[in-house]
């Protein structure tokens, strides 16, 4: 009954609250410019991974939001079902899965300056 992730969208009767991803490390030191290029490439190709473009747009807006409450409002209003509270795994109302890499959600611990 319901979509694949419907039972996972609630925790104690409330919607799952999103949080910042845990600290992570890129395989090699990366500059802010390289990180932005990786993010742009992901978002440019994300609709090709399946799902609906408007959900991808909402996930991008949430990932780029400066405030967690704004990001929460974006995913809630788009009907995104959050499986992983750090937004790495989400579903839409139709059950389509959306996976976000950590590099679009936060900066790595080994980010270096551009020179």
From TrEMBL:
Q: Which domain of life is it from?
A: Eukaryota
Q: Which Gene3D superfamilies does the protein's record reference? A: Ub domain-containing protein, DC-UbP/UBTD2, N-terminal domain
Tell me which stretches of the chain form a coiled coil: none
State the residue spans of region: Disordered.
1-31
**Compositional bias of type Polar residues: which residue ranges?**
1-10
Location of the DC-UbP/UBTD2 N-terminal domain: 16-113
| Biased amino acid composition, Basic residues | 16-25
Q: Which InterPro entries match?
A: DC-UbP/UBTD2_N, DC-UbP/UBTD2_N_sf, UBTD1/2
Q: Mind telling me what this protein is named?
A: DC-UbP/UBTD2 N-terminal domain-containing protein
Which organism is this entry from? Lupinus luteus
């Amino acid at each position: 009954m319901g979509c694949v992730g419907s039972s996972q969208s609630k925790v104690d009767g409330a919607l799952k609250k999103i949080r910042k991803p845990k600290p992570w490390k890129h395989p090699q030191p990366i500059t802010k410019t390289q990180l932005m290029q990786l993010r742009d490439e992901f978002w440019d190709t994300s609709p090709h991974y399946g799902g609906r473009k408007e959900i991808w747009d909402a996930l991008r807006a949430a990932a780029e939001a400066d405030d967690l409450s704004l990001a929460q409002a974006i995913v809630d209003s788009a009907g995104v079902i959050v499986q992983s509270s750090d937004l790495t795994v989400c579903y839409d109302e139709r059950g389509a899965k959306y996976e976000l890499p950590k590099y679009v959600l936060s900066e790595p611990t080994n980010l270096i300056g551009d020179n």
